[in-house]
Amino acid sequence: MMLSPERLALPDYEYLAQRHVLTYMEDAVCQLLENKEDVSQYGIARFFTEYFNSVCQGTHILFREFSFVQATPHNRASFLRAFWRCFRTVGKNGDLLTMKEYHCLLQLLCPDFPLELTQKAARIVLMDDAMDCLMSFSDFLLAFPDPSPGWLFLETPPSRPQSGCRERWLH
Fold first, then answer.
1. Which InterPro entries match (predicted)?
2. Distance CA 64, CA 88 (A)
3. Per the domain annotation, does 128 fall within a domain?
């Protein structure tokens, strides 16, 4: 694996800070201490290998507390990717869900996911007075444009035209 030119242009400490390596090292050690009985069966080196593989694959955020999910841009992007992977069949089936139902899905992946953030995303899709209306999975997911800056996790999301209320098709 070759190092990127940008990596070579930065001092080591800046590169480590930019990639949030300390955050992941601290979390890995905490996870190690919490699971030391399991780790004793297969070893510390294997634990760290599996931990950092999960970080690279983006599965390290599953079922974690919200403070960890929002801790780094990679965690935020991984969370939204996991949400899409887990629930994309909702979109394929054309199901329309309420903001509260989407919040329940988010909480399956992150039990303390804040309702306020789900509401922020829904406001981008729906008008403020139509927050109990139905929306498609793709519309809801598009309310999280580029997860790398993690705008959803900030106080003020960017503005986007509101599309109004969606309704279920009656068969």
1. CSTPP1
2. 21
3. yes
Residues 87 and 41 in one domain: no
pLDDT in tens, 81-92: 999 999 999 878
Beta-carbon contacts of 136 under 8 Å, excluding residues fewer than 6 positions away, are 91, 94, 95, 96, 166
Residue 113 near residue 106 (C-beta atoms within 8 A): yes
**Count of the separate structural domains present in the chain:** 2
- Is pTM beyond 0.85? Reply is no
Cα 130 to the chain's mean position, in Å? 25
Residue 37: C-alpha distances to residues 18, 24, 29, 33 (Å):
33, 21, 14, 9
Cα separation, 100 vs 115, whole angstroms: 8
CA-to-CA distance for 92 and 20, rounded, in angstroms? 35
Distance CA 25, CA 19 (A): 11
Distance separating the N- and C-terminal Cα atoms of the chain: 54
Domain limits for position 21: 5-57
**DSSP character string of 90-118:** HHHTT-EE-HHHHHHHHHHHSTT--HHHH
Residue-wise pLDDT tens digits, 43-67:
999 999 999 999 999 999 999 999 9
Position 42, amino acid: Y
